[in-house]
From TrEMBL:
This is Early light-induced protein. It comes from Salvia splendens (Scarlet sage). It is a multi-pass membrane protein. GO terms for cellular component: membrane. Keywords: Membrane, Transmembrane, Transmembrane helix.
Amino acid sequence: MNYVDAKISTPFVFFTFACTIYNSHANAVSTDFFDVLAFSGPGPERINGRLAMTGALLSVASLVPLFSGQTPESKAEAVMTSDAELWNGRLFAMLGLLALALTEYIKGGALVSL
């Protein structure tokens, strides 16, 4: 970008920024529970973002022992071994899918109707 391009685009950027500020103050924000948690509301976006950050942090925290040379088998106890943990996770995931399919079959349609 040269000086001429910057000089031409600067008023447009300032105008867009000024309109955004004006519109954000002109529109009243609803604080109703159902408006905040609506599909297009601000609540689900923030909740989803924070859960994603938490999941990423937990994923990294789970990998730290592996990068330090420890194996899951070295920390296994009598009942809760690494293989048992994998099988339990798979089992409960499949049971959840089965329960969802069974619920939709009994209900005769989708679990949540939008």
